[in-house]
Amino acid sequence: MKILLVEDDKTIASGLEYSLQQDQYSTVLCYDVASAKKVLAEDIDQFALCLFDLQLPDGSGYELCRMVKERRDIPVIFLTVIDDEVNVVMGLDMGADDYITKPFRVRELLSRIKTVLRRYQKSPYTEAIIDIDNVRIHTLEGKVHKNGVEVSLTALEYRLLLIFGNHLGQVLTRNQLLEQIWDVAGEFVNDNTLTVYIKRLREKLEDDPGQPALIKTVRGLGYKVGD
């Protein structure tokens, strides 16, 4: 399994590369945005996961995340010294899957990598097509249509919708949703983050987001989709 590591601090990069290889991952190491873009353009399909430093000498990890998510839905984890809500939300909006703040323990990073990769494994029990009123989820293609028109969702928005689609008619608590999206990986995950993603899904899929008929709030319990 191959990982693209983009980190401009050569000491950190060397240590991470060694640790990843000791854990049986193969790696491609880049020190800047330009070289990473070249590698991705040549063969993005070789990678199972990307680790991007946020602050790079010729740009940022955001740039690389956007490029990856436009081409393939593969996991992206940010490495950064920045630890504030604005940057976390910005990364999540681009479809990033996790966010770890330096300094961190290598074991923690390896654990998060495994958790993220597990979330991307396809379940053989997932239906190929899931219909929810006028919304259709094409699980094999990772696409969503409303009234026959494709709706653009981030990776996390899509996975949240897929959780609802696989539990039609079932009330899901906020904790259940958070556990299934994140496997409780990352201290930045909280109720506010979930609220943001529920709101964005409603804005994209509901006929009237102010009076949601698709993703219903069950007061005091959580959310329910379908009868």
From TrEMBL:
UniProt keyword ATP-binding, yes or no: no
Alphabetized SUPFAM superfamilies for the sequence: C-terminal effector domain of the bipartite response regulators (SSF46894), CheY-like (SSF52172)
Entry-annotated residues carrying 4-aspartylphosphate: 53
Alphabetical UniProt keywords: DNA-binding, Phosphoprotein, Transcription, Transcription regulation, Two-component regulatory system
Domain Response regulatory: 2-117
GO CC terms: cytosol; protein-DNA complex
Signal sequence segment: none
Family annotation (Pfam families): Response_reg, Trans_reg_C
GO biological process, one term: regulation of DNA-templated transcription
Domain of life: Bacteria
DNA-binding region location: 127-227
Domain OmpR/PhoB-type: 127-227
InterPro entries: CheY-like_superfamily, OmpR/PhoB-type_DNA-bd, Sig_transdc_resp-reg_C-effctor, Sig_transdc_resp-reg_receiver, WalR-like, WH-like_DNA-bd_sf
A GO MF label: transcription cis-regulatory region binding
Name of the protein in question: Response regulator transcription factor
